Amino acid sequence: MMEKYISKTFNSKRLYERAREVMPSGVSYIIRHFEPYPFYTKEAKGSKLIDVDGNEYVDFWIGHLALILGHSPEPVVEAVKKQIEHGTHFGTSHELEVELAEKIIELVPCAEMIRYTSTGTEAAMYVTRLARAYTKKNKIVKFEGGWHGGYDALDIAVKPPFNVPESAGLTEGATKDTIVAPYNDLEGVIRKVKNEEIAGIIIEPVLGAGGAIPADKEFLKGLK
Q1: Superfamily covering domain 1-89
Q2: Rounded CA gap, 203 and 186, in Å?
Q3: CB 152 within 8 A of CB 174
């Protein structure tokens, strides 16, 4: 299988060799790296990716699971084209951000207010800080196999073994107020948080990096 991949991805290999000269591990984000080298996408439409060698892939990753409408849906493409004529990054408040916030709250009633962030890492960082500020407590509970971006306080126990740092450069101090609990094990969580001052719980309803494992409904109800 590896030989077949190499034989069909010559242009990707050449790009990877160039990329290694200017980017660590030859990629812009480490999870995009795999052996012997990643393929390089040229275009995408719907559920399909086409690489620089013309190979077509069914995309189950779909932009970090963010592209729920698929790649390049026509209504989105047309809206982006229309907006480009008026500007792309104002650095000020504008009407569209209000309209989008109103629409999100309409579709997700439990979202009482909206704050935009550029990345999941930022969202996790700010929600952790907000929970601590609101509750006047410090401890945050996250789960084995859960991944919440590169924020130091939560970049722990993403993959086994769960008792070691995810990478060099992470200090014990950064995670001293993070409690790692077992996923889908309510009794285990209760044991972990007993006698602790909990500011909040951060959880993926479906573990992503942890293996696409859905949380049991009763487990989520119990946490709440």
Answers
A1: Aspartate Aminotransferase, domain 1 (3.90.1150.10)
A2: 13
A3: yes
Question: The domain at 120-223 falls in which architecture?
Answer: 3-Layer(aba) Sandwich (3.40)
Peptide bond into 36 cis (omega under 30): yes
Confidence (pTM)? 0.84
How does pLDDT run across 103-147, given as a tens digit for each residue?
A: 999 999 899 999 999 999 999 999 999 999 999 999 999 999 999
Amino acid sitting at position 222: G
Dist CA 46 CA 49 (whole Å): 8
| Residue 62 burial (10 A CB sphere; 0-12, 13-18, 19+) | middle
Cα gap 154→135, rounded to integer Å: 18
Whether the Cβ atoms of residue 70 and residue 42 lie closer than 8 Å to each other: no
Distance CA 206, CA 213 (A): 5
- Residues β-bridged to residue 200: 140
DSSP conformational letter for 99: H
Q: Provide, rounded to the nearest whole percent, the portion of the chain with pLDDT above 70.
A: 100
